[in-house]
């Protein structure tokens, strides 16, 4: 669902690491990572993340991608567009 640099950035942001795994996360894992970026706590009784928390996570992810694109224009050739 996500381009390689997008899921790698998502993984690194959520897991506070500089090195993503070689294999991309499943869609469910990616959704929960986005939710965590948006403030979802994922406690036992919280249920599934909602639209608002996913939107917040997506905005944070694309903000991070824009920063990376600005800082590494030659290494990071990705058009994130207007979200």
Explain the overall architecture.
There is one protein chain. The protein is mostly helical and 83 residues long. The chain has helices at residues 4-15, 27-37, 51-71. The protein contains three helices and no strands. Helices cover 53% and strands 0% of the residues. The radius of gyration is 13 Å and the shape is globular.
Mean residue pLDDT: 87
* Low-pLDDT segments, ≥5 res: none
What's the SSE pattern?
HHH
Radius of gyration in whole Å, from Cα?
Answer: 13 Å
Query: Helix/strand-derived class?
Result: mainly alpha
List the keywords:
mainly alpha, 3 helices, globular
Provide a concise account of the structure shown.
This protein has 83 residues and is an all-alpha fold. The chain has helices at 4-15, 27-37, 51-71.
Topology at a glance:
Layout: H1 4-15, H2 27-37, H3 51-71
Helix pairs in contact: 1-2, 1-3, 2-3
């Amino acid at each position: 669902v996500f381009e390689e640099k997008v899921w790698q950035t998502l993984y690194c942001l959520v897991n506070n690491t500089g090195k993503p795994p070689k294999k991309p996360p499943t869609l469910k894992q990616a959704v929960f990572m986005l939710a965590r970026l948006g403030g979802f706590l994922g406690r036992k009784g919280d249920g599934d993340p909602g639209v608002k928390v996913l939107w917040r996570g997506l905005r944070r992810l694309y903000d991070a991608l824009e920063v990376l694109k600005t800082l590494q224009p030659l290494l990071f050739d990705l058009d994130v567009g207007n979200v």
